[in-house]
Specification:
With 283 residues, the protein is α+β, with helices and mostly antiparallel strands. The protein has two domains: 138 residues, Diaminopimelate Epimerase, Chain A, domain 1 (Roll); 133 residues, Roll (Diaminopimelate Epimerase, Chain A, domain 1), CATH 3.10.310. It is built from five helices and 17 strands. The protein has a 17-stranded mixed beta sheet that branches.
C-alpha cells in the first residue's frame, strides 16, 4: 500500500502527518506497528511520532498520535500546531479555528499568522491544567503535588506534577547544562508513582517571564521540544512562585510563548509549525 505523507516539525519536535479519514491505513496495518516502522531514523522516514487525521462525529476532526515506540499518548502540543497547518494547507479543514477531538478532550488550535496562504504560527487553547494527583495520575496523598521528593536509583528527586491531558513531572534545576537527562529522565518516566509513566521536564528559571527547558518525553526519549510539557512547566513554575502568567519557554528546538489566563484558567500556547518535506511511502 502506498500512502502520502508530510514530514513536519514544531520547533524540532518532528512528526509524520497522515490522512486516514477513510480508515484505509487502519484497515491495512496497526498504527503502532506503522509508527515504529516509519519513525525509525535509519530505516524509516524518521520522527518522534506519527499523527493521523481521522473522521469525528462530534468535532471538526479527530487527532491520533502514536509515539516512535508504538505507544499512544493522549495529546501533543507541538504536534497539534503541525496538525492545524497540515489540515489547512491540504484543504482538509480550511478554518482559522478548529475543534479537534483528542484522547485528552477537545483541543482548539487557532491559526495566528499566515504568509502567502501558508500557516506560519498557531495558537492552541490547551485547556485547564489538572493538578489533583489522581487525575495526573501520580500517587500522592495531597491536593496538589508540588516539589514532592521521590526516591529513585539516582537519588532523591523533587517533582512537581501536572497533567495537560498527559502527565508531566517538572524538575527545577540551577543549571540545565549540568543535568544528565538521559540518565534521570527514564528513571522518573517509569517511576512506580506514575502508573501511566510520565513526561519529564527539566527547568532552569531565567526570570519571572523566561525559562529554559529540556525534556525527556514519555515513549520518545530526549526531544527538542514538548508543547504540553512547556505548559506543564509554566503551570508548576507559576504555582511555586517562580514566574508570572506570561512566559517565554526556551527549548532546544526554539521558543514557545505560554499564557495562563487567570479568568478562564485556560493555558494558551503559541509557536511555529513547519513543513520539512512531503512524499509517498510504501507500507
Amino acid at each position: 500500500m502506498r500512502i502520502d505523507f508530510w514530514k513536519m516539525h514544531g520547533i524540532g519536535n518532528d512528526f509524520i502527518m497522515l490522512d486516514d479519514r477513510d480508515k484505509a491505513i487502519a484497515d491495512h496495518i496497526d498504527y503502532s506497528d506503522l509508527a515504529v516502522q516509519l519513525c525509525h531514523r535509519r530505516f524509516g522516514i524518521g520522527a518522534d511520532g506519527i499523527i493521523l487525521a481521522r473522521h469525528s462525529d462530534t468535532h471538526d476532526i479527530r487527532f491520533v498520535i502514536i509515539n516512535s515506540d508504538g505507544s499512544e499518548p493522549e495529546m501533543c502540543g507541538n504536534g497539534m500546531r503541525c496538525f492545524a497547518k497540515y489540515l489547512y494547507e491540504n484543504n482538509i479543514l480550511v478554518k482559522d479555528e478548529m475543534n479537534v477531538q483528542t484522547l485528552a478532550g477537545t483541543v482548539v488550535p487557532r491559526i495566528e499568522k499566515k504568509q502567502n496562504g501558508q500557516v506560519v504560527s498557531v495558537c492552541v487553547d490547551m485547556g485547564k491544567p489538572k493538578l489533583v494527583p489522581d487525575q495526573i495520575p501520580f500517587v500522592h496523598g495531597g491536593d496538589m503535588a508540588l516539589e514532592v521528593p521521590i526516591e529513585t536509583e539516582q537519588g532523591i528527586t523533587s517533582v512537581s506534577c501536572v497533567s495537560m491531558g498527559n502527565p508531566h513531572a517538572v524538575i527545577f534545576v540551577d543549571d540545565l547544562s549540568l543535568v544528565d537527562i538521559e540518565t534521570i529522565g527514564p528513571v522518573v518516566e517509569t517511576h512506580p508513582r506514575f502508573p501511566e509513566k510520565t513526561n519529564v521536564e527539566f527547568i532552569e528559571v531565567i526570570s519571572d517571564s523566561q525559562i529554559k527547558m529540556r525534556v525527556w518525553e514519555r515513549g520518545a526519549g530526549v526531544t527538542l521540544a514538548c508543547g504540553t510539557g512547556a505548559c506543564g512547566a509554566v503551570t508548576a513554575a507559576h504555582l511555586t512562585g517562580r514566574v508570572g502568567r506570561q512566559v517565554r519557554v526556551h527549548l532546544d528546538g526554539g521558543d514557545l510563548d505560554i499564557s495562563w489566563d487567570e479568568s478562564s484558567g485556560h493555558i494558551f500556547k503559541t509557536g511555529p509549525a513547519q513543513t520539512v518535506f512531503n512524499g509517498t511511502v510504501d507500507i
